[in-house]
Amino acid sequence: MLVIGSFTDQKLLILLGNYTVFCLLLLPVTRLFHRYRIKGKVIVISLFYMMIPITRGIFLQIKGDHRQTLFELSSSLIILATLIAIIYLIENMKEQIEMKQELIRTEKMNVVSQLAASVAHEIRNPMTSVRGFMQLMQKEELTKEQQLYISISIEELDRAQEIINQYLALAKPQTDQYETIDLTSVIQQSIDVMHSYAILNSIQITQQVESSLEIEGLKLEIQQVLINIIKNAIEAIKSEGEIWISAEKNANGFVSIQIKDNGVGMTGNQIKKLGSPYYSTKEKGTGLGLTVCHQIVKQMGGQILIKSELKKGTCFTINLPSKK
């Protein structure tokens, strides 16, 4: 429009002023624009953009410049059509990139699942036997040093068992029927389970959970997700920090659970990789805990969103469909 104004009798300074105001108004509209999918974005940008040619057209009509009004509206329609085409192209490219990333993630999950199904059971059986024999040895008269070695061995076997259980959770198909869950109660139980671990690390847990929140799912699985994320939050703080847990029902029919800490935080690159098999920010992490959490929440029709900033903390938002 500024270029067009240079070759017509329109005043360039007036056009420049108009578009400066237009750009300033565009900033708050940007948030609204990103909330919608393609059709919604097209409607938002069309309504916003057409304000300029309409107001200018009215101004030109008052002046009696009908020829310039027609030129203004026709050129604006061409620009609007171009904007809509660009939006469609960008959104389609974004969808293709997301589909490609989801395909890669699904392939990784399939590899992990096949590995779990073929190996986990065979490893777990001899480990159970070894653990049993070690427990029997603990009852014998041994030196303190020998007792310590056996205790460490049992702890490491238990850790290996937990890793195997996580593999099996990835491989296990969802066959159980969903039931109505009192989510408020499950959140409270999960906090109670992790309360002693938090106290041990001098961490305070603050909660603000709405009453009578209900979802459709499996109680043990959603509890596993909550405990895992709360545990990660405690370990991210290390000591003397605070965790905020809130839950409420949104207007869009979802229950939103937020677990926020003031720990070490993460970079943008770490957030992108989080939830992928074998990726972990912890020194002894397997990268399977959050992978299982993502899978459980996805099967329930929800999603996990992560926001984080280095040295300021991390916020996990779990969105789950509420009971209809």
Determine the structural class based on helices, strands and strand pairing: alpha+beta
Q: Order of SSEs, N→C?
A: HHHHHHEHEEHEEHHEE
Q: Spans with pLDDT under 50 lasting ≥5 residues?
A: 1-10
Shape: elongated
Beta-strand content bin: 5-15%
How would you state the average pLDDT, rounded? 79
Radius of gyration: 29 Å
Strands ordered across the widest β-sheet: 2-4-5-7-6
Helix tally? 10
Level of helix content? Answer: 55-70%
Distance between the termini: 50 Å
Q: How many β-strand stretches?
A: 7
**Main sheet properties:** 5 strands, mixed
Can you walk me through this structure?
Helices cover about 65% and strands about 15% of the residues. It is α+β, with helices and mostly antiparallel strands and about 325 residues long. The strands form 2 sheets. A 5-stranded mixed sheet has the order 2-4-5-7-6, covered by helices on one side. Strands 1-3 form a two-stranded antiparallel ribbon. α4 packs antiparallel against α5.
Helices and strands in order:
Elements: H1 2-6, H2 12-35, H3 38-49, H4 51-63, H5 66-138, H6 144-171, E1 179-182, H7 183-200, E2 203-209, E3 214-217, H8 219-237, E4 241-249, E5 254-261, H9 268-273, H10 289-299, E6 303-309, E7 313-321
Helix pairs in contact: 2-3, 3-5, 4-5, 5-6, 7-8, 8-10
Main attributes of the structure:
single chain, 324 residues, alpha+beta, five-stranded mixed sheet, two-stranded antiparallel sheet, 15% strand, disordered N terminus
